[in-house]
Amino acid sequence: MTLFDSPAFEAHESVQAFYDEKSGLKAIIAVHSTARGPGAGGCRMWNYASAQEALDDALRLSRAMSYKNAVADLELGGGKSVIIGDSRTQKTPELFEAFGRAVEAVGGRYWTAEDVGVSPGDLMHARKTTRYVAGLEGHAAASGDPSPVTAEGVFRGLKLAAGKAYGGRGVDGMTVAIQGVGHVGAYLADKLHAAGARLVIADVNQQALREVSDRTGAKIVSPDEIFDVEAEVFAPCALGGAISTSTLSRLKGKVIAGGANNQLASPEIGQILFEQGVVYAPDYVINGGGIINVAGEIRALKRNEAFDPAWVAGKLDRLIETLEMVLDRSAAEHRPTHAIAAEIARDRIAEGRSRAETRAAA
Ligand code: NAD
C-alpha cells in the first residue's frame, strides 16, 4: 500500500519526514488541512516500533486536530508532529533545536506545542530555531496550563448533557463517577462539588485520590469498580478507550461526558451508545477548552500581544453552543452525536476552504 492509499492519509495536504544526522532527529510533520488557518497540534515523542507506526500516528492525530480545531471554531487547521525516540533517554537540546528547524521549514503552515513525551522545557530549545511554537512559559503571550480551561468546558458540557438526558435537572444532587483525577479530573471534581453533585472517583494514583476526596468528600472506588457505580453521569478523565462494549454494559447512567481523548474504544461504540439512549458528549468537542487556550497563545504571538483570557472565554462559550447543537441535532435527526460532530467539523473545514479560495481569487 502506498502512502496515498493508506486509510490514515485521508487527503493530507503535506507529510514531511525530517532527519538530522548530528542530533539523530527523526521526525514526521503531517499537515492535514490549512483550510481554516495554519495546522496546529502538539509534538509527540514516542519510541515507535517502526517508521510506519510513527507515520500512521502522525496522520491519525493530525486529522483529529483538523476536526477538533474546526469544531472549536478556531482559525486553525490540523497538524501534528512525531519524533521517533525514547523521551526518557534520547532528549537533548540539539534534538529539539533540529526539530525547531524542521518546524520552521514548514514555513508557518504548522504550529507545534506539547504532547506526550514533550515538555515546555523541550520546546524552549525548539523556540531557538522556529517562531511557530506555542506552550512556552514566561512570556506575555503564554497561555499556561490548559487544564483549568479544559475542565471548565467539560463542567459546562457535562451539565448541558445531564440536563438533556434527565429532563432539565441540574447536577445538584446527581452522582457523577469520575475516572481519573489528574489535572482535568481534579478541577472537574472541584467544580461539580461546588455545584452540589455527589462524586465517586477512581485513579491509580492514591495521592491524587486522597487530595480530591479530602476537598470534595468524594467516595473512592477501585479503577475497575468505577464502571459499576450507581451514577447518572460517567466522566472519563483518564486515558483513551474507556468506553468499550464490555464497560458500556456496566454503566448505570444516561450520560457520558468527560475530558479524556479518544474515549470510545472503537467508532461503532458511538452508534451503540445512541441506540441505548445514552447521551454522549463527543470527546473532542467537550474537551476543546485546552486547544482554545493554546489557540489564544498562537493568536497573541501572531499579533505580538499579551494573552487575552476574554478571547478564550468567548471561544469557550461558542464551544458549548456547538455542543448543544450536536446534542439537539442528534435527538432531532436520530443520529449519534459523534457522527453529527464530525459532520459539523467537515462543514466548517469546507467553509474555510471556500473562504480561502475566494480570498485567493480576489
Ligand atoms: P493527567 O495525567 O494529569 O491525569 C490522568 C489521570 O488518570 C492520572 O491521575 C492517572 O493516574 C489516571 N489514570 C491512569 N490510568 C487510570 C485508570 N486505569 N483508571 C483511573 N485513573 C487512571 O492528564 P490530564 O491532563 O488530566 O488529561 C486527562 C485526559 O484528558 C487525557 O486523556 C488527556 O489527553 C485529555 N485532555 C487533557 C487536556 C488538558 O488540558 N490537560 C485537554 C484535552 C484533553
CATH architecture of the largest domain: 3-Layer(aba) Sandwich
**CATH class wording of the largest domain:** Alpha Beta
Overall helicity: 40-55%
- Radius of gyration, in Å, reads 20 Å
How many DSSP helices? 12
Q: What name is given to the CATH topology of the largest domain?
A: Rossmann fold
Mean pLDDT: 95
Distance between the termini: 40 Å
Uncertain runs:
none
Oligomer: single chain
CATH superfamily of the largest domain: NAD(P)-binding Rossmann-like Domain
The counted number of beta strands is: 12
Give me the secondary-structure category: alpha/beta
Ligand species:
nicotinamide-adenine-dinucleotide
Instruction: Tell me what portion of residues adopts beta-strand conformation.
Output: 5-15%
Q: Could you walk me through the main structural features you see in this protein, from its secondary elements to its overall organization?
A:
The structure is a single chain. The protein has 2 domains: 3-63 and 77-126, Leucine Dehydrogenase, chain A, domain 1 (Rossmann fold), CATH 3.40.50.10860; 147-287 and 322-345, NAD(P)-binding Rossmann-like Domain (Rossmann fold, 3-Layer(aba) Sandwich). 46% of the residues lie in helices and 14% in strands. Helix 2 crosses helix 3 and helix 11 crosses helix 12. With 362 residues, the protein is an alpha/beta fold. The strands form 2 sheets. Strands 1, 2, 3, 4, 5 and 6 form a 6-stranded mixed sheet that branches. Strands 9-8-7-10-11-12 form a 6-stranded parallel sheet, sandwiched between helices. The chain contains 12 helices and 12 strands. It is globular. The structure holds nicotinamide-adenine-dinucleotide. The site of nicotinamide-adenine-dinucleotide has 25 residues, from helix 4 and helix 5.
